[in-house]
Amino acid sequence: MYKCQINVYLILIQKGKILMLKRANTGFMDGMYSLPAGKLDKGERIHQALCREVKEEVGIDIFADDEWIKNTYILHRYSKEGTVAMDFFFRHSKYSGKARNMEPEKCAEVAWFPLNAIPENTIPYIKLGIQNSLQGIVLDEHIWE
């Protein structure tokens, strides 16, 4: 029996750059880049979780509209630990506030990178999510063996 986890990720693009976070002190992929992201809380809708996590991690407000609904990518993956993950990547460009590191105990850096220069040390399934989203792919299955 697999444990299922639902995760949300924000692919925030402004002026040809993407917002990324460098993980630190979490015990999972520390030193690697990811996106503003998180897990759903019990009873929470996917878009609510995304708005909450983005506010908690980078201090900005995003709003549900047609843009991110049209630009969604879903990754279904299995981890080595036996967890089934459903990852929802939302591509968006509208927000209010200034992106900054709101969780320095878990994040070493918040930075904008050109879309053609995503850091080499980006978590592999995050890189896959970014690439597939930008190519207009809607769904992918990725199995870890």
User: Which geometry do the CA atoms define?
Assistant: globular
Distance between the termini: 16 Å
CATH superfamily: Nucleoside Triphosphate Pyrophosphohydrolase
Question: What structural category do the secondary elements indicate?
Answer: alpha+beta
At CATH's second level, what is the architecture? Alpha-Beta Complex
Describe this structure in words.
- By secondary structure, the protein is α+β, with helices and mostly antiparallel strands.
- The chain has a single domain (3-143), classed as Nucleoside Triphosphate Pyrophosphohydrolase.
- 20% of the residues lie in helices and 37% in strands.
- The chain has helices at residues 46-58, 66-70, 124-134, and strands spanning 3-14, 17-23, 33-34, 37-39, 72-78, 83-92, 107-114, 139-143.
- Strands 1, 2, 3, 4, 5, 6, 7 and 8 form an eight-stranded mixed β-sheet that branches.
- The longest helix has 13 residues, at 46-58.
- The model has no long low-confidence stretch (mean pLDDT 90).
List the main descriptive attributes of the protein structure presented here:
globular; alpha+beta; 8 strands
Question: What secondary-structure arrangement, pairings included, does this model have?
Answer:
Layout: E1 3-14, E2 17-23, E3 33-34, E4 37-39, H1 46-58, H2 66-70, E5 72-78, E6 83-92, E7 107-114, H3 124-134, E8 139-143
Parallel strand pairs: 1-6, 5-8
Antiparallel strand pairs: 1-2, 1-4, 2-3, 2-7, 5-6
